[in-house]
């Protein structure tokens, strides 16, 4: 009889609420990061291309943050890497690779995005900071529930 219960505990039907909460946060955040990263490569026609990223997003980020006190080389480095970073973090989280560390990197990425919006100081950036803060809270909740992770490829 105990053997049967042990088999049942591995089934998703018998997962705890915490395990379901974590898998929900994990799926949400991985899809959020993938969508945000891939969206940076999308052009006006709806096609994905590197030119859309480099000529559109990178140029926009660099020109927008010229007015701030951030050094130009850091802004360029960030602009060229943020799309790839979001895709990579989204994939790693979806696949369950080093989940706790990937969530921590997502949190730091969200903080950096919010900080950039704070530096701009426009009314639209205030709205963006509020939205990023909600994503940051979801990430913090996922980090809290990470010990209930049921699927992890590499620890």
From TrEMBL:
Membrane topology category: Multi-pass membrane protein
Gene Ontology, cellular component aspect: membrane
Transmembrane intervals: 20-39, 77-95, 102-122, 128-146
Pfam families assigned to the protein according to its UniProt record, in alphabetical order: DoxX
Membrane among keywords: yes
Subcellular location: Membrane
Keywords, alphabetical: Membrane, Transmembrane, Transmembrane helix
Name this protein carries in UniProt: DoxX family membrane protein
Upper taxonomic lineage: Bacteria, Pseudomonadati, Verrucomicrobiota, Opitutia, Puniceicoccales
